[in-house]
Amino acid sequence: MSKYIKQNIAKFVAWIIVLILGIVMLPNISGLVADKGQTKIPDSAKSQVAKTIQKDWGHKISNTRQVVVVFNNGDQALTTKQKERINQTIDQLKDDKTKYDIKGVTAPNDSDATKKQLISKDKSTQLVQLDVGKRDTVRKMNQKLIKEVKTSGVKTYITGSDILNDDFSVAIQEGLKKTEVIAIIFILIVLILVFRSPIVPLISLGTVGLSFIVALSAVMNLAKYTGFTISNFTQVFMVVVMFGIGTDYNILLYNQFKNDLIEGMDKEEATKHSIKVAGKTILYSGSTVLLGFLTLALAKFSIYRSATGVGIGVAILLLALLTVNPFFMSLLGNKVFWPSHNSKESNHSKLWSWLSGHSAKNPLIALGIIVILAIPMLLTYNNKLNYDTVVELPSDYSAKQGFKTVQKHFSKGTAEPTTIYIKSDQKLDNESDLRVIDNLTNQIKGIDGIKTVVSVTQPGGDKIDQLYVNDQLKTLTSQTSKAQAGLKELQKGLTGGDFDASQLEDIGAKATLIGKELKSIQATSGEQLMTALQQKMTAAGQPLSQQQMAILTGAASQEMASVSSMQTRLQAIATYTQAIGNDAQSLGNELKGQQQKMASAGSSVGKLNDGLSESNDYLKELQDSSASNTLFVPKSVLESDTFKDSENVYLSSDKKAAKITVVLDSDPLTSKSIKKVESLETMVNNSVKGTSLKNASVSIGGQTSETSDTSSIAKQDFLRSAVIMLIGITVALMFVTRSILQPFYIIASLLLAYVGGLGITRFISSTFLGENLLGWNVPFFTFVMLVALGVDYSIFLMMKYREFGNEAPGDRIVKSAGIIGTVVISAAIILGGTFAALMPAGVLTLTQVAIGVISGLVILVFLIPAMNSSLIRLTYPRKD
Do 412 and 668 meet the contact criterion of CB atoms below 8 Å apart? Predict the structure, then answer.
């Protein structure tokens, strides 16, 4: 056994050891991808700022996942019995909050506001909103909740953005299993047909498989321990790229080895020569592919940067191909091609020979045809993309069914509402800041495409009339009108009386006179009475006799004695009557003065009433004006329990952040909704200027906002990453081709294939898949795969072109195309077939990428010989 063979055996044993270590050290891929493989947006993006605010919200719901439980009875209203069962499920959820790490439950029957928001208009569907902690993984949380909320006789779903994203990862992982099996079977069949032997196909698949397992373990461990960027797509693209180009390179290598054996070389010599000749092409091609993927490490967007893992896979693949294959080649020799014979077969490609020959002969015509065919592709190119991850999922996923049910029976935006966060350095639970928040709420309501808006001042989605100035003015003007009526009555009493004080004075004078008369009566004696009587009788001519006088005087004396007590009482009456008279006169005088004052007061009350009437008229006008449609929260309301409940939901625990929840009437993941949210952010920022919240920061959270940030960052970083990648590949091509112009020819052909591939993909997707738009990451992955892998075929051609250095450039390119054409076409078929294995995965993005790459490869098969031959003929008319 030669030293060379011993070295190859040692290398092979080393690879086996590395393979075993790779398998042993391979982490849990699905868990790792779920934890570290989600699309990451820079922390400075508005949606991420919003997430930070939500994480520190307080009220026991900080850093939680938003989950929606959907109870549905098809298109029929829920029955009383079904509602009872749903309520039992909700009560059980509330009782088991600790068990499932549930921080908050919002149910339909919690309040009138929740009834309006969480029960569909057709009464067929009810929603329950959960704030769930992050104790468990999304997948584990989802599995637990699905069992818990299952309700007899009712369709029940668990959905939410986190669950949908996790389901997307699951769909890719499940699809990857199908892809791996299909790709291996396809490659095995093609290699058997190419080499007419089962040995080479098994060696090829074994070598590529070994390198894939080692590379996958390396990438996943880097992600686990160093923070290396991965995504849902890292593993799946490692599979198709490594198995695709690995098989291509093996075809190139074993074809060279077979020819060398036929030329008479022994197995050791043929192995060395094959590694020197074909290995050089493989190394050049692979290095260019490697460089293309490694440049993506400079990308800022995580999902783009995750493609760097494919670059690591390519590097390990190249090392394995050039060290493991020699072990089998040098050890088995001609036996690797058993049972085929060592007959040298013609590998001449008639198609490439014809395309190259006619293009070199008529370069301008060939280029003209290429331009004519390219114009429609360029003119029909558009960058409208679909950001809806839900459409990616197979229809049998429960979270997707729940999401679609919510969209059907509620507004399409109900399942994924948008939340506006306003963060200030001061507390917001004051009348001034609440008024600004309420004004924003009303402004947002007036925007087309908005279904519902709720905030701290409008927790039910509608204005609370009692908190607005116009309603408060209505109450005030009503009370003022009543006051006016009372003032009119008072004025009438003060100024309309006809009281005469002189009558009171006359009464007083007469009462005084009566008193005097009574006193006079009381002072008259019996003797005086008899004397007066005698005088009267004498004047009448009938004087009384002495005897008569004596008798009358005695009788009078007796009578006066009986009247004595009455006189005493008359004295008291006289005294009192005279006092009354004096007081009546005094009172009469005072009433004259008071009557004058009351008349003056009545006049003042009239003036007050007139002024109050004018004020009330102004208040009524103000009440009817738009100026009064303004919030004013009295202190008593601010301190009420009802308003505190609203604050607990829509203000953070420190009262320095507020949120306004907006439900769109369109699908939250469409371009229409994305534009709506972007304009909403601009409007809110402009509206807070010049208010008490002018220094507050505004950020928008929710799936639509996150998608908007994803769209913006993806577009920017796609262009940046593409330029970096093209520059890296162009520089590498200059070294490989030893030319300045030829790399630009190659890059031009790759770009045309990319644009054409996307156009064909869009047509097939809309015609046969029912999806008019491409997934948002389809252009990037199609570009990367076509450019990084398609460059191989041009390198194959140009490396063969360099072998015929003594001939004229036109002849060299035609001859090279005829020889290498078969290899390129076989390689394109294998690579295309490998990508075709992505389609059964059932994930729309993978299907569209597969169609794009396959279409681009077909275009390259025809474009490379035609375009390169015509341009070389024009730029290199003579021998080098």
Answer: yes
* Residue 14 to residue 1: CA distance in whole angstroms: 19
pLDDT tens string 459-493: 888 877 666 655 555 655 565 555 556 556 655 65
Residues 6+ apart with CB under 8 A from 655: 427, 428, 429, 647
Distance (Å, whole) CA 474 – CA 795 = 84
DSSP states of 236-270 as a string?
HHHHHHHHHHHHHHHHHHHHHHHHHHHTT--HHHH
Model confidence, pTM: 0.79
Q: Is 409 helix (H, G, I), strand (E, B) or coil?
A: helix
Q: Give burial (CB, 10 Å; 0-12/13-18/19+) of 658.
A: buried
Residue whose C-alpha is closest to residue 155's, from 175, 129, 125, 178: 125
Q: Compute CA distances 758 → 111, 368, 766, 851, 855, whole Å.
A: 51, 22, 12, 8, 8
**Token representation of residue 337:** 């091609």
DSSP state of 626: G
Question: 309 vs 247, 297, 482, CA distance in Å?
Answer: 19, 9, 81
Q: Which of 240, 176, 317 is nearest to 834 (CA)?
A: 240
Q: Cβ distance 792 to 291 under 8 Å?
A: no
State how far the Cα of 260 lies from the Cα of 342, in Å rounded to an integer. 10
Q: What is the pLDDT of residue 880?
A: 42
Helix (H) or strand (E) holding 496, with range, is none
User: Is the dihedral angle over the CA atoms 356, 362, 367, 369 positive or is it negative?
Assistant: negative
Residue 514 has pLDDT above 80, yes or no: no
The β-bridge relationship of strands 65-72 and 697-701 is unpaired
Angle at alpha carbon of residue 847, lines to 843 and 853, rounded to 5°: 145
Q: Are 65 and 141 in contact (CB under 8 A)?
A: yes
Amino acid at 830: I
Q: Which two tokens stand for residue 738?
A: 């030893």
Strand, helix or coil at 775? strand
pLDDT in tens, 308-341: 999 999 999 999 999 999 999 999 999 999 987 6
Residue 802, token pair as written in the block: 């360099």
Q: How many CB atoms lie within 10 A of CB 41?
A: 21
Cross-strand pairs, 658? 422, 651
Distances (CA, A) of 117 to 66, 69, 405, 441, 658: 16, 14, 15, 17, 20
- Closest Cα to residue 377, out of 751, 846, 787, 719? 751
Least Cα distance to 579 among 518, 520, 522, 511 occurs for: 511
Max intra-chain CA distance, the chain: 205
